[in-house]
């Protein structure tokens, strides 16, 4: 290990001070470069080729310094972001409901630009360029992505760095922390009015794909998320006692009661399941777990004359909004029925409770005015 003279003609190596190549007899006064070899902690060799002896000595000192840092201070060599991502996404599949969204954002917005870089070579300007690029093109109208989408991408990069730090895959600085998140003011709480609800229910009654229609009705009567319904298995349903078990990625069950109408939907789904022994309550035509419901929902939505912008997730908002405005359900109960992890997520429906309270307060006017 050390510095050697390399003959540029035959690529052989020689000790410093050698004047003539012992292999091809070429003069090493002109036909030479310098080869630097340093042994790493894992026994491998790091090799660099430079033009001058002065530069070779500087490179050798730098490489030896890096080895000493890792040996004495425990400093690790920075991994490639793509390598850490592979570990992260495998973890996310077991621990995050939204891992598919993470995967899409990584492949679409992150990997093509910084995935092949080492984590210590990525700086805030690299990340800002990704966000700026998202401003220029893409999105639904190709006029740039919404602020919320950009924020999701920034949060993903930040999360990967934090995760790597927690597991000591990489303990350097997190460049995403220095980027100011885009301002987001696009929280959407979709809710069908009574006329739209009536048209939807009438459409579902005569819809030819009855299992698909039942899936939509079940969402409306329970407020469950689309993925929760598509992944629902018969073993998770207690028809006798009217309960259902939902599982988050960590395997912690949330047991919730079913209304009589929701139970009726379950009974109907059981009658038309594709074959005996089918695992899923609302499977596709082959009895397998659905991976998408977008096309079916689009047809149902259009047939019912609902707004084209109304998403399937709006059924969950509709469920929550009508319960909140009924005056019979408080926010805590609504939080549990929606399986929200925190009350802040349910807070968007609080104004509906305020209207109910106002109507309740108005009852006093009627009571006392009747006494006059």
UniProtKB/TrEMBL annotation:
<dbReference type="Pfam" id="PF00589">
    <property type="entry name" value="Phage_integrase"/>
</dbReference>
<dbReference type="InterPro" id="IPR013762">
    <property type="entry name" value="Integrase-like_cat_sf"/>
</dbReference>
<dbReference type="InterPro" id="IPR050090">
    <property type="entry name" value="Tyrosine_recombinase_XerCD"/>
</dbReference>
<feature type="domain" description="Core-binding (CB)">
    <location>
        <begin position="75"/>
        <end position="165"/>
    </location>
</feature>
<dbReference type="InterPro" id="IPR044068">
    <property type="entry name" value="CB"/>
</dbReference>
<keyword id="KW-0229">DNA integration</keyword>
<keyword id="KW-0238">DNA-binding</keyword>
<dbReference type="InterPro" id="IPR010998">
    <property type="entry name" value="Integrase_recombinase_N"/>
</dbReference>
<dbReference type="InterPro" id="IPR002104">
    <property type="entry name" value="Integrase_catalytic"/>
</dbReference>
<dbReference type="InterPro" id="IPR053876">
    <property type="entry name" value="Phage_int_M"/>
</dbReference>
<dbReference type="GO" id="GO:0006310">
    <property type="term" value="P:DNA recombination"/>
</dbReference>
<dbReference type="GO" id="GO:0015074">
    <property type="term" value="P:DNA integration"/>
</dbReference>
<keyword id="KW-0233">DNA recombination</keyword>
<dbReference type="GO" id="GO:0003677">
    <property type="term" value="F:DNA binding"/>
</dbReference>
<dbReference type="InterPro" id="IPR011010">
    <property type="entry name" value="DNA_brk_join_enz"/>
</dbReference>
<protein>
    <submittedName>
        <fullName>Integrase superfamily protein</fullName>
    </submittedName>
</protein>
<feature type="domain" description="Tyr recombinase">
    <location>
        <begin position="187"/>
        <end position="362"/>
    </location>
</feature>
<comment type="similarity">
    <text>Belongs to the 'phage' integrase family.</text>
</comment>
<dbReference type="Pfam" id="PF22022">
    <property type="entry name" value="Phage_int_M"/>
</dbReference>
């Amino acid at each position: 290990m050390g510095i050697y003279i390399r003959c540029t003609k035959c690529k052989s190596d020689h000790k410093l001070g050698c004047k003539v190549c012992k292999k091809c007899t070429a003069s090493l006064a002109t036909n030479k470069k310098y080869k630097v070899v340093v042994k790493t902690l894992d026994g491998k060799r790091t090799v660099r080729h430079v033009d001058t002896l002065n530069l070779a000595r500087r490179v050798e000192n730098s490489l030896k310094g890096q080895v000493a840092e890792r040996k004495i201070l425990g400093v690790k060599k920075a991994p490639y972001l793509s390598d850490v991502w592979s570990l992260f996404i495998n973890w996310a599949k077991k621990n995050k409901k939204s891992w598919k969204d993470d995967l899409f954002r990584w492949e679409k917005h992150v990997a093509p630009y910084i995935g092949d870089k080492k984590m210590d070579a990525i700086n805030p300007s690299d990340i800002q360029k990704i966000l700026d690029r998202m401003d220029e093109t893409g999105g639904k109208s190709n006029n740039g992505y919404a602020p919320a989408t950009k924020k999701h991408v920034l949060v993903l990069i930040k999360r990967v760095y934090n995760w790597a730090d927690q597991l000591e895959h990489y303990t350097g600085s997190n460049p995403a922390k220095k980027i100011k998140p885009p301002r987001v003011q696009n929280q959407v709480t979709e809710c069908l009015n009574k006329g739209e609800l009536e048209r939807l229910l009438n459409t579902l009654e005569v819809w030819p794909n009855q299992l698909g229609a039942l899936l939509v009705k079940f969402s409306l009567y329970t407020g469950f998320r689309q993925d929760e319904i598509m992944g629902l298995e018969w073993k998770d349903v207690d028809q006798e006692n009217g309960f259902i078990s939902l599982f988050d990625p960590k395997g912690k069950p949330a047991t919730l009661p079913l209304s009589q109408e929701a139970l009726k939907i379950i009974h109907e789904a059981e009658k038309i399941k594709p074959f005996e022994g089918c695992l899923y309550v609302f499977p596709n035509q082959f009895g397998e777990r659905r991976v998408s419901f977008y096309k079916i929902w689009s047809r149902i939505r259009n047939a019912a004359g609902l707004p084209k912008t109304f998403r399937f997730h709006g059924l969950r908002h509709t469920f929550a909004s009508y319960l909140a405005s009924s005056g019979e359900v408080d926010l805590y109960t609504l939080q549990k029925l929606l399986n929200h992890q925190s009350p802040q997520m349910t807070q968007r429906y609080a104004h509906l409770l305020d209207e109910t309270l106002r109507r309740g307060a108005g009852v006093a006017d009627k009571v006392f005015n009747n006494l006059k």
